Request: fold
Amino acid sequence: MSLPRYAKYKPSGVEWLGDVPEHWRIHRLKRLCRVMPSNVDKKSHDGETPVLLCNYTDVYYNDRIVAGMEFMPATATPEQIEKFTLKSGDTIITKDSETADDIAAAAFVPDDLPGVVCGYHLAVLRPIEPGSGAFFKWLFGGAHAQAAVEVRANGLTRVGLGTHDIENLEIALPAPSERRAIAAFLDRETAKIDALVAEQERLIELLKEKRQAVISLAVTKGLNPDAPMKDSGIEWLGQIPAHWEVVGLTKYLQSVVDYRGRTPTKVDEGVFLVTARNIRSGSIDYAASEEFIAADEYEAVMRRGKPEIGDVLFTTEAPLGQVANIDRTDIALAQRIIKFRGGPDKVDNYFLKLWLMGSFAQADMEQLATGSTALGIKGSKVGQLRLCLPPLDEQRAITSFVVGALEEMDNLVAEAQRAVGILAERRTALISAAVTGQIDVRPESMRTAA
Reply:
């Protein structure tokens, strides 16, 4: 989209703004909005009035706060209700976060919301001049404003914006009619971008579902659609190729090592410790969690069995049933991991991993798992899991086929994820350009440009 610029610009005098349209004015936010950080917490207190609470996540994940959203029940004092009940035209921003680059997410309130109160970790920006709220919402969606609030945020374990920091944020302000035009333009154009993002995200989900289906079909039915079939004897599994067998998971394994026991002492550098957090989607993600043990503790920690290339790692909880093949041996293994090694003439390690990733094996695990907040399986029950086993050469053929198919799908997922990233960058850039006057989106200007 090629959009016109304004005819004349001037220096704004504000480093993060640069040049702005000549007729725009520079103001501090406190001259334009009442800035009201909320002190309404999530707790319900005796003697207070029941309310619905607009929380941090409501604002963080939505552009608009509207009736019908699932607000949290809470209570508030009459003074809090008077001050923080959401009104048409309000913009709400997140004033606290874990990192400075993730602060001041904004959402707009298009209509009065009686009984809905702004919650803690948020601030209400209530425009002094009617009709400007949507513009302020979009202002905080641009990279310029995000950079400005990032340098103002302070804190150690959690960063926050103080009232003074928010109130004294300098912004370039167009005329009221332009504010409305900018907000309407961004409502329309970001909706188009969001629709494209949603399409890519749907594609990613479909590819992930297809990925799981390919694995599950191959490890339970094989690659030959004309192969004679037999009843597996297991309702969930149904028919399997007649020359396959169903056995206990550990029947033909060479070794099963459960790394339960004391938690090893962690150090800043040494031998990489693979934890359950590192095992994801069929591989070891060494960046997901970086922990180390001292080299002189390695023998003690790994006394039950050292890793070999190809060994299958299986997480027993947090999360349950994630698997990966070992791809390097200079590692230690943490609790909540069991290591399997296939019998050399019976079980291919890479087929075993795929079997454990399949839908049938995952369902089998859930049947044996226990736990209220997080499912887990005891090492003593692992032998009760079942394994659908073709001959060794067929295991390897299935593995080769599935690996190739997954690589193609993973490439498509990566392309879709890149597209989502590009669209997100385009969205932010468009917002930044509009709210700082780097493009002229007034209807008359766009008609002339067209």
The mean pLDDT is 93. The chain has three domains: 1-14+176-226+393-450, 25-173, 245-389. The longest helix spans residues 176-221.
